[in-house]
Amino acid sequence: MVKFDIQNLSIWFKEAQALKDVTMQVEAHEILSVIGPSNSGKTTFLRTLNRLNDLELSLRMQGFVYFEGKDIRTMDVELVRKKMGMVFALPLPLPLSIFDNVAYGVRMHGEHNKKKIIQAVQEALQQAYIWDEVKDRLSESAFKLSGGQQQRLCIARTLAVGPEVILFDEPCSGLDPISTAKVEETMLKLKEQYTIVLVTNNVKQAARVGDRTAFFLMGELIELEKTDKIFTSPAQARTNDYISGKFG
Amino acid sequence: MRKIKEFIFERLILFSGLASVFFVLLIFFFLLKEGLAVFKTVPIGDFLAGKNWYPISDPAQLGILPLILGSLMVTLGATIISVPIGTACAVYIAEVAPEKIKNFLKSGIELLAAIPSVVLGFIGMVTLVPWVKKIFHLPTGLTALSGSIMLAFMAMPTIVSIAEDALYSVPKSYKEGAFALGATHWQTIWRVLLPSASSGILAAVMLGIGRVIGETMAVMMITGNAARIPQSILQPVRTLTATIAAEMGEAVVGSEHYFALFAIGIVLFVFSFAINVTAELFLHKDKR
Fold first, then answer.
1. Which fold has domain B65-287?
2. What tens digit of pLDDT does each residue of A213-223 get?
3. pTM here?
4. Helix (H), strand (E), coil (C) string for chain A
5. Which chain A residues touch B if contact means CB-CB below 8 Å?
């Protein structure tokens, strides 16, 4: 099933074009990795999917993004962002307890029933595979967690709101290899229930977790293929040059 | 030759730097020397808690409690009015307003800060005071309330500009994080921006209060200057500042009255010092 159908998407920041005529689909329950050097438009692409780009006043957009057949620009913006949870490059815990960090979004969306909040928090922490590490210290400050734990806490916070898609924006760029491995493991388990779009600077990460991989360069989608194929026999020479480290 | 020049300039700058500190110390010591003299004849408890301020009766009664209460009441009133409006204004400018309105409002607020307080007092006297009298059916409109409203205007520019800075300095990622969770604009402002900017906003409020408590001219013109313990905000009051300004000219140098006015100066100094230190603490906390 197609989750996102992106048709001829072009984006400009003032005069500079960030995305050039991108057409692609994101399937349900896959991990789609988006790779490319910096300035290739991959983050702009990701932020189009949950309409976070709406915050940029100088931005101009052409083309269409359909989510389950509906143009996202006709949908309620808060609903779009609720359905497409986003995890940022740097873990961004709020200055609250571990529990309240996860409960935050739940409460914000109007849930006041204590039992339901507790349940939602526990489920989200379990799904983010951090429950066992934090279940005895839920009232401690989130800043006491390690970087990798903080990032998984942020994943839990995103999950608690009840998204369908999770957008990862270079989620491991600030993490050490062991924490990265844990976050990747979490992603692989999450794809059973969610659709995942993973923007990453780390080509090897795309190879490890991506079902399919999209290669962006200078705002253009160069190639989108099964991850095995793109890493063994890419159709485009430029793709090969990037993943083999000739530039990037 | 060049070395000598260098030396002279370095010293000049050093002295200029020291001069400002030196003057502050000088003022402080002068204030203490003149002010503390009053406590030779009036016990400090009677001075601070005394209910009557009759400096020229015989024997003089020098209790400044009515003045302290007057100052506090006017300041409190001004704070209650200016803090919500000022903060809301800062939120509007920092978050909601389109570019054009933002610039217009910002220059408007700067202009408000540039109005001399005597002019504000004058405007208050001819417009606000009659209104207060009419609306509340009072014998006089020269009340603590009138003073509070007028002083709220004076505190507003300070509060707005500093609170706005505090809101701007909230990391963009906080805002994006909230939006990405599906928060509405208002939820983001209320639950993320305001709490993260809270120490800066508190500092803004403290500095605004500092401005209000030290203000003299406007309050002297519109609060009625009755040195008695106020029972309600609709009564005339007299503030610490207005007392010094009004009576210093007629106090005999070296008299008990004269020393008492300086002691009031010390009390004011302590108040504004405490407020500034608190504001500084909040600002500092923000930077950490």
1. MetI-like fold (1.10.3720)
2. 999 999 999 99
3. 0.79
4. CEEEEEEEEEEEECCEEEEEEEEEEEECCCEEEEECCCCCCHHHHHHHHCCHHHHCCCEEEEEEEEECCEEHHHCCHHHHHHHEEEECCCCCCCCCEHHHHHHHHHHHCCCCCHHHHHHHHHHHHHHCCCHHHHCCCCCCEHHHCCHHHHHHHHHHHHHHCCCCEEEEECCCCCCCHHHHHHHHHHHHHHCCCCEEEEECCCHHHHHHHCCEEEEEECCEEEEEEEHHHHHHCCCCHHHHHHHCCCCC
5. 50, 52, 55, 78-79, 81-82, 85-86, 88, 90, 92, 104-105, 108-109, 157-158, 161
